[in-house]
Amino acid sequence: MKEKFEVIEIENTTMVLKVNRSGGCHSCSASAGCGTGILASAFGHATTFNKPLEPGVAVGDFVTMQISSSELFYRAFQLYMLPLLALFIGALIGVELFPMNELWQIGFGSVGFIGALLFTKYFLK
Questions:
Q1: Which of 25, 98, 99, 100 has its CA 20 to 30 A from that of 74?
Q2: Do the Cβ atoms of 54 and 42 come closer than 8 Å?
Q3: What span, in angstroms and rounded, lies between the C-alpha atoms of 112 and 114?
Q4: What distance in Å separates the CA atoms of residue 112 and residue 116, rounded to the nearest whole number?
Q5: From CA 64, how far away is CA 56, in angstroms rounded?
Q6: Which helix (H) or strand (E) holds 91?
Q7: Residue 28's pLDDT is what?
Q8: In terms of pTM, does the model score above 0.70?
């Protein structure tokens, strides 16, 4: 999978890249019911990250990079499966701590799910 990234900043030996995620989601008529469209609106439309500086690159240039299928699978796991697993683990903790109170079990599951979403958004790049 290849994608174009814009160089928005250069710091010593690092370049800061920005990519516009899900650019076509806003024009698609199914974006309100599509998982990618919903996640794009929840997590923002642009992602920035750091990569080692390539020779001859300046701010404002576009760089084409390729992501391996294993990296793509790993990122998809982080985005889709991690929150789901956290939901089930939170619910299981709730079942162990409060076996007779379903409200607490749902609460622990919800906290696990929301915690995983926030962790994914702010700490996994």
A1: 25
A2: no
A3: 6
A4: 6
A5: 14
A6: helix 82-97
A7: 66
A8: no
